[in-house]
Amino acid sequence: MPQFRYKALSSAGEPIDGVMEAASADEVVARLQDGGNLPLEARPADGADQGGLANLFRRAPMNSAQVLQFTQQLSTLLGAGQPLDRALQILLDLPESAEARRVIERIRDAVRGGTPLSQALEQQENVFTRLYINMVRAGEVGGSLHDTLKRLADYLERSKALRESVINALIYPSILVLMVFGALLLLLGYVVPQFLPLFEDMDVEMPLLTQVVMATGNVVSGYWWLLLALGIGALVLLRQHLRDPDKRRGFDAWVLRRGLVGGLMARLETARLTRTLGTLVHNGVPLLTALSIARNVMGNLALSDAVEAATAEVKTGGGLSLALGRSKLFPRLALQMIAVGEESGELDTMLNKVADTFDIEVRNTIDRLLAALVPAVTVFMAIIVAMIMMAILIPIFSLTNAVG
Hints:
Layout: E1 3-9, E2 15-21, H1 25-34, E3 38-44, H2 53-56, H3 64-79, H4 84-91, H5 98-112, H6 117-122, H7 130-142, H8 145-191, H9 196-202, H10 208-243, H11 245-256, H12 259-282, H13 287-296, H14 301-315, H15 320-325, H16 332-344, H17 347-403
Antiparallel strand pairs: 1-2, 1-3
């Protein structure tokens, strides 16, 4: 029987993990729930699902936009008084994707068989996040599934809006950078080597700048395939390197210390953390459980470790703002706003305000960086092209002066 590695929260909010023999991941989840635990993750212990070239190109049955649409429509139907199984039956006819329809059909069949919605969602691998599933589970326990889905849809919509704004802002600079490097490769790999026979025939002494440019052009022209292979190999090695949690943790901590980029990353992760916490706490999830769930949705392991340490301090009665502040990694403004929320008894509201504030800051910072990137790339291109042209023209001018 295969083994599965799991992570869960006990009834006291303490994280637990281990290895369990079971027929499937669903059985692991069911056993953990029967024991009064809150499952967070269940995956094959042999790591068979962790990678490989096939997983790199595997597409999820429902993308983020389809999940958002499913959540909004289900919330609307439940708010209109439709029973859950009837609402799922109506949603079955709406998606254009056959894969999405199959996912909804499996959820409907499971719900009709008596399975809770949260467990039916959990059975759909790589579709719904742990945050999504645990929020639905909390809504089921509290009897407010419609309100939970409505808040969850708002959360997903805000996250989608921030992600799309960043992607849209990156389109033009990305095209510009690709064109710049394409032009440089064309100059160095094709244009520059055309002048080398000319200089050799004229027996002109080439200055150092010309020698460097000509040598670079010969390398690009003759060994472009090797340079491409080295680049791909470096990316693969970096990806493998960052799969090691300790090395990834060190890299993430290094990023946070890198001035402007580190500050941007800290604000982005703070917005993600507070948005998740605020949504969970407002939905009735206990703070300790919410912290353990929110830690799993963070992308920076150094900040995730800081949240884990804060969770341990909050468990002993400490305040959230003081606990998060001990790591000195989170922005001071966020800690002050959280402290105000704790004092006023409106922590969930203040956490969402922190997320709104830092979402705006992140968006403005990215806009400024991208606005500065375009002229910077243009100046860089102009300097490189000028150096290449000087390297070609200086020997020609020297020869002309000698002939004159």
